[in-house]
Specification:
There is one protein chain. With 139 residues, the chain is an alpha+beta fold. It has three helices and six strands, in the order H-H-E-E-E-E-H-E-E.
Length: 139
C-alpha cells in the first residue's frame, strides 16, 4: 500500500538533496524526516505530515492533500545561515518535486518564518516552512 505522505516526503527530500545550492549549505544526511529536535547542524527536518483525504478520482485512485513542515536549524551564523538555507530550499522546491509513484496534482511553494533562540548565549536559529501538495495515489 502506498502512503501518500511518505511518497511526498521522499520526493521533497530528493529535490532538496540534489539541489546544489541546498547541498552546499546542508549535507544530505542532515536532511531527514522524523523528530524535529536537531541532532546535527545545520539541518532540514521534515516533521510528521498532516493529511486531508479529499476523495476518489478515476481508475480507483485517491486524492489526499498533504502538508509537510520543513524545520531548518542552524547554529553557525545563526539567523543568517538559517535564512540562506530557507532561501535555497525555497528555490529548490519552487516547482513540484518529481515522483515516480504518485501524482502531484496541485502544489504550493514553501514559505518560511524564522525565530532566534531567546538565550543570548546560544546562537540557534529555527525556521519553519510548509510545503503542500494534492497527491493522487492508488491502493
Amino acid at each position: 500500500m502506498i502512503d501518500p505522505s511518505l511518497e511526498f516526503q521522499t520526493a521533497i527530500r530528493s529535490q532538496l538533496i540534489t539541489n546544489q545550492s541546498v547541498s552546499a549549505l546542508v549535507p544530505a544526511d542532515h536532511i531527514r524526516a522524523g523528530s524535529t529536535r536537531p541532532d546535527k547542524l545545520p539541518t532540514i527536518i521534515m516533521a510528521e505530515p498532516q493529511l486531508i483525504n479529499l476523495g476518489r478520482v478515476s481508475s480507483d485512485q485517491y486524492l489526499t492533500r498533504v502538508y509537510v513542515d520543513l524545520h531548518i536549524w542552524a547554529l553557525e551564523d545563526g539567523a543568517d545561515m538559517a535564512r540562506q538555507i530557507g532561501a535555497a530550499a525555497s528555490v529548490a522546491l519552487w516547482d513540484a518535486p518529481n515522483s515516480d509513484t504518485v501524482g502531484i496534482d496541485a502544489y504550493e511553494r514553501p514559505s518560511f518564518a524564522f525565530t532566534r533562540d531567546p538565550d543570548p548565549e546560544r546562537a540557534y536559529c529555527h525556521g519553519v516552512g510548509t510545503v503542500e501538495g494534492v497527491i493522487r495515489w492508488r491502493v
